[in-house]
User: Fold this.
Amino acid sequence: MADIDQREAARLVDRIIEEVAAWPHVNTEEHRFEGREFTLGPREVGHVHRWGIVDVPFIERLREALVDEGKTGEHHVVPESGWTTHYVENEDDVERCVWLFRLSYLYHVDTLKKTPAGAERFEEIDVAEELEELGASDEVREAFERRGS
Assistant:
């Protein structure tokens, strides 16, 4: 991670928080390591740290596709997990992190829509259309759609 002013990192992180917290059914709460955690029901969509680190969990197959494409990196503490880490250093990173959070959000929405309560709660969210809008690659889409890995 490049040396950036802590205030600048916090400003960029605040932009991410503002965007993700506004999504339907997302809850935010304090994260134990100076940041905000985003949840969708009992599922964590990911979290941000004030000093400019974004951690987003994915199933391993999806994480591998994202890392292979350079969309994010392995987690800075537990690289062998499904968790990813992206460092926030500039405006482009804000958009990349929001993209990662949205992909995680859509993955959880898609899973929850398979339940009766989730089908009703998330009826207004068209996951396939949003994946198209995100410009997800074929590899990411395939990993997204294949569960259990």
